[in-house]
């Protein structure tokens, strides 16, 4: 049973990743209206009579999202029953399904009634939360074997500050990136890293949106680098924290590289999809670090209770 649950959770996580990449593909190819103002049907037809590339992309995204929704629901119920005794399970099960439904409703509303670019930019972020919840639920299922030290961590205040701050800031960066796509501002600044070879300061809205995203991304790279240095210096003995930050640094650097190549290659589709893939993976890893930080608080409380009962101070609390 446990092996089957692990397999299904892994496939569901992969399906959610396809939902995210599919949404990015719809935006990049401007296929959002591939089925017209009709939802869930295409042009009001069960089987469309006129097939276009935009219709295929939009309809495929809808089908994958629907399939992923059913898989997430099954995983949530299955995990609830199998590992519901683990503290985070029920919360993640609810969040994963609720946010997936929410992103579907926003997508449907955008098709039927239309939405502003600022509202549409929320769509990817909401899908990202659902993906992260499914990803964490999958990791919880694998954690049952206790093959690594995720259950015994106690983090210091500075590390928890980095974890909480970076994931919130990362979400802001994700929103600015989605806004760039929906406002079609990806090539508003044709030069890199400055907006134009002849001037540094943006002069119109699309340029400000593009340069604002670049600046936000640069700050995130610096912040993650600082947190990674701290993890390497103080957390070598705690593998999940140590490798979590190293992986985060690699992913954010790949994110920067693909973001640069999007401009230099004039919106190459595959590079753009890789850009969405790397930020999705980065947010998933950061979400796991957040779960570890929350769990650290619980571990610290337990350690304090033990110390009070034995009149001793655990060494981990002296850090």
From TrEMBL:
Signal sequence bounds: none
Keywords of the record: Cell membrane, Disulfide bond, Heme biosynthesis, Iron, Membrane, Metal-binding, Oxidoreductase, Transmembrane, Transmembrane helix
InterPro entries given in the database record: COX15/CtaA_fam, COX15/CtaA_HemeA_synthase, HemeA_Synthase_type1
Pathway(s) it belongs to: Porphyrin-containing compound metabolism; heme A biosynthesis; heme A from heme O: step 1/1
GO CC list: plasma membrane
Keyword Iron-sulfur included in the entry's annotation: no
GO MF terms held by the record: heme A synthase activity; metal ion binding
TM segment ranges: 7-26, 63-80, 92-114, 120-142, 163-183, 211-229, 241-264, 270-294
GO biological process: heme A biosynthetic process
Presence of the UniProt keyword Translocase in the record: no
Compartments reported by the entry: Cell membrane; Membrane
Requisite cofactors: heme b
Superkingdom assignment: Bacteria
Binding-site residues, heme: 213, 275
Catalysed transformations (reactions): Fe(II)-heme o + 2 A + H2O = Fe(II)-heme a + 2 AH2
EC numbers: 1.17.99.9
Biological role stated in the UniProt entry: Catalyzes the conversion of heme O to heme A by two successive hydroxylations of the methyl group at C8. The first hydroxylation forms heme I, the second hydroxylation results in an unstable dihydroxymethyl group, which spontaneously dehydrates, resulting in the formyl group of heme A.
HAMAP family attached to this UniProt entry: HemeA_synth_type1 (MF_01664)
Record-stated family: Belongs to the COX15/CtaA family. Type 1 subfamily.
Subunit description: Interacts with CtaB.
Full protein name: Heme A synthase
Taxonomic path: Bacteria, Bacillati, Bacillota, Bacilli, Bacillales
């Amino acid at each position: 049973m446990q092996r089957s649950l692990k397999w299904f959770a892994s496939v569901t996580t992969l399906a959610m990743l396809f939902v995210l990449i599919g949404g990015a593909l719809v935006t990049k190819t401007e296929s959002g209206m591939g089925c017209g103002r009709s939802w869930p049907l295409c042009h009001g037809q069960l089987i469309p009579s006129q097939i276009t590339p935009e219709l295929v992309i939009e309809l495929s995204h809808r089908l994958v999202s629907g399939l992923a929704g059913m898989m997430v629901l099954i995983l949530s119920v299955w995990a609830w029953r199998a590992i519901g005794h683990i503290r985070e399970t029920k919360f993640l099960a609810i969040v994963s399904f609720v946010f997936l439904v929410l992103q579907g409703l926003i997508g449907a509303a955008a098709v039927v009634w239309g939405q502003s670019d600022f509202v549409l930019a929320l769509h990817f972020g909401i899908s990202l939360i659902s993906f992260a919840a499914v990803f964490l639920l999958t990791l919880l299922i694998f954690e049952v074997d206790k093959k690594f030290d995720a259950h015994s961590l106690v983090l210091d205040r500075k590390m928890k500050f980095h974890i909480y701050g970076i994931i919130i800031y990362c979400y802001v960066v994700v929103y600015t990136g989605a806004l760039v796509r929906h406002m079609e501002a990806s090539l508003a600044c044709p030069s890199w890293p400055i907006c134009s070879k002849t001037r540094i300061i943006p002069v119109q809205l699309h340029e400000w949106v593009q340069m604002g995203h670049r600046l936000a991304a640069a700050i995130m790279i610096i912040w993650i680098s600082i947190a990674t240095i701290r993890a390497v210096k103080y957390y070598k003995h705690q593998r999940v924290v140590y490798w979590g930050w190293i992986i985060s640094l690699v992913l954010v650097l790949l994110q920067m590289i693909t973001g640069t190549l999007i401009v230099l290659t004039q919106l190459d589709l595959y590079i753009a999809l890789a850009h969405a893939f790397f930020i999705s993976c980065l947010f998933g890893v950061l979400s796991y670090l957040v779960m570890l930080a929350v769990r650290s608080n619980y571990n610290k409380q337990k350690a304090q209770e033990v110390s009070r009962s034995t009149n001793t101070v655990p060494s981990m609390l002296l850090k």
